[in-house]
Amino acid sequence: MTKRKDRYVFPAIFEYTDSGIGVTFPDLPGCVSVGENDADAYRMAKEALSLHLYGMEEDGDEIPKPTPVHKVEKEDPNEAVVFIDVWMPPFRDEMEKKPSKNRNRSSMAEQNGGN
């Protein structure tokens, strides 16, 4: 299992459009988010990054090293590179308090006499 770090910082690409801000993480395919403005996009990006990294940790996936800012490639002048910083301990605690679907099903089955 990969050693879990308490803090991660990854570059994100904020793409500004007429309908809002799309957020992607070049180092983490599939980790995406959106926001209505900069503050909303930043908050949603932190949430998406935390959830994505938590899932990778739980699956035992290797978490890549972040690309240095000077090597992050923007494809459009309407894009900006923003570093997103997440502190994982409180996020992990919150996720571990949430019941999993399997635990919910088991509890429901027990309450219904095992059916």
SS-based structural class? alpha+beta
The biggest beta sheet, please?
Answer: 4 strands, antiparallel
- How much helical structure, as a percent, in the residues? 25-40%
What would you say the CATH architecture is? 2-Layer Sandwich
Distance between the termini: 36 Å
CATH class: Alpha Beta
- CA radius of gyration is 18 Å
CATH topology: Double Stranded RNA Binding Domain
> Got a strand count?
4
* Beta-strand percentage range: 25-35%
Domain tally: 1
The helix count comes to: 3
The overall pLDDT, averaged over residues, is: 87
**Major sheet: arrangement of strands:** 3-2-1-4
Low-confidence segments, ≥5 residues, pLDDT <50?
102-112
Spatial shape: globular
Can you offer a commentary on this structure?
- The chain has 115 residues and is an alpha+beta fold.
- It has a single domain (7-111), classed as Double Stranded RNA Binding Domain.
- The protein contains 3 helices and 4 strands; from the N terminus they run βββαβαα.
- It has helices at 38-59, 88-97, 101-111, and strands at 7-17, 20-24, 32-35, 79-87.
- The chain has a 4-stranded antiparallel sheet with strand order 3-2-1-4.
- Strand 2 (20-24) and strand 3 form a beta hairpin.
Summarize this, please?
By secondary structure, the chain is α+β, with helices and mostly antiparallel strands. It has helices at residues 38-59, 88-97, 101-111, and strands at 7-17, 20-24, 32-35, 79-87. Residues 105-115 have a biased composition (Polar residues).
List the helices and strands and how they pair.
Elements: E1 7-17, E2 20-24, E3 32-35, H1 38-59, E4 79-87, H2 88-97, H3 101-111
Antiparallel strand pairs: 1-2, 1-4, 2-3
